[in-house]
């Protein structure tokens, strides 16, 4: 078992051939090889139904894989669950809260259920966790009076009662308003700055771009791509945009130079840059030589969303 950690000691989560077929025959996750580097904020991205929750449940030892292996903090799951899980904070599905108890009392109750938690230091631990998520002032309010964002933060506080090497968050901003989303995102950044590896699933691309250092993209139970977010976004080519009072002439020149998928409007031409190395200065010079008057000239950087669509040929169910 120890060789597993020797193979990839810097990976906090590593899976090989991880597969889950449910009893009804539904193949939810297929041959997944995931690698989550230590210290990363890792976005696990995919449309609804692409297998994210099923993967997370296998990682945490809540369900058995049909085949393949998973290691968490270098130890095999589900075999090492008893020694590994105390170092992992998890928030999957909405947090289970007692509405009639205050936020603070919810955490006290949660902490009391942990046999390893010292009762003498409980109040201090709960106070620190409330402080961590910015709920100190609201700590004595009943949880049922909390906004969704506050409930989600209280759930995070419960995952932070003990020091954690890894936090696993399943759709932590689902159902939150923009302000609630921002709060969770900044909390995730703070936790990562303290050295905690954060693995979070989301179906929102811009969220992943804003907060994650690394990402993996799932579609139909399979891994499409994984790596540093900056590299994933660079995977898609940029789109050239030229603003000009002579769009027809500009389009003709650009076409001759290999620009494809041209779109011409009254004052602008956009198109896909040709494959390979293209010097934008040459394109601009060619336009000028052909007496095309250029007001602005540039490449619109593709987002991770463009990269995703290019890779999978599908978009996201953003409403879902
Ligand atoms: N217990 C189960 N029994 C049978 N099929 C299941 C079960 N759980 C999930 N599935 C199916 O497996 C596939 C992947 O589901 P999963 O919940 O892992 O996706 P997801 O990416 O987490 O989506 P969501 O964000 O909607 O939870 C879906 O087609 C789902 O219907």
From TrEMBL:
Name of the protein: ATP-binding cassette domain-containing protein
KW Nucleotide-binding (keyword) present: yes
An example Gene Ontology molecular-function term: ATP binding
Keywords assigned by UniProt, alphabetized: ATP-binding, Nucleotide-binding, Transport
Family: Belongs to the ABC transporter superfamily.
PROSITE patterns: ABC_TRANSPORTER_1, ABC_TRANSPORTER_2
Keyword Nucleotide-binding assigned: yes
Organism: Streptomyces flavidovirens
Domain ABC transporter: 13-245
């Amino acid at each position: 078992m120890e060789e597993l950690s020797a193979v990839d000691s810097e990976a906090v989560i590593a899976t090989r051939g991880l597969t889950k077929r449910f009893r009804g025959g539904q193949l939810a996750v297929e041959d997944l090889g995931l690698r989550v580097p230590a210290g990363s904020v890792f976005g696990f991205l995919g449309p609804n139904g692409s297998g994210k929750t099923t993967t997370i449940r296998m990682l945490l030892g809540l369900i058995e894989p049909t085949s393949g292996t998973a290691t968490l903090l270098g130890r095999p799951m589900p075999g090492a669950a008893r020694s590994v899980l105390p170092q992992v904070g998890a928030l999957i599905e909405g947090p289970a809260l007692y509405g009639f108890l205050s936020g603070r009392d919810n955490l006290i109750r949660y902490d009391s259920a942990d046999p390893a938690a010292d009762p003498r230091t409980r109040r201090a631990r709960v106070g620190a966790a409330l402080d961590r998520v910015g709920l100190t002032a609201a700590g004595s309010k009943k949880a049922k009076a909390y906004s969704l964002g506050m409930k989600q933060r209280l759930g995070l506080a419960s995952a932070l009662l003990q020091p954690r090497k890894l936090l696993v968050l399943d759709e932590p901003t689902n159902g939150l308003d923009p302000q609630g989303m921002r709060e969770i995102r900044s909390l995730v950044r703070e936790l990562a700055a303290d050295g905690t590896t954060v693995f979070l699933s989301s179906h929102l691309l811009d969220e992943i771009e804003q907060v994650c250092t690394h990402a993996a993209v799932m579609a139909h139970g399979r891994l499409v791509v994984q790596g540093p977010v900056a590299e994933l976004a660079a995977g898609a080519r940029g789109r050239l945009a030229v603003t000009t009072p002579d769009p027809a002439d500009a389009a003709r020149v650009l076409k001759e130079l290999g620009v494809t998928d041209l779109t011409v409007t009254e004052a602008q031409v956009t198109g896909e840059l040709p494959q390979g190395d293209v010097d934008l200065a040459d394109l601009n010079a060619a336009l000028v030589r052909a007496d095309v008057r250029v007001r602005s000239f540039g490449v619109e950087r593709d987002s991770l969303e463009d990269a995703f669509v290019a890779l999978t040929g599908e978009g996201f169910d953003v409403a879902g």
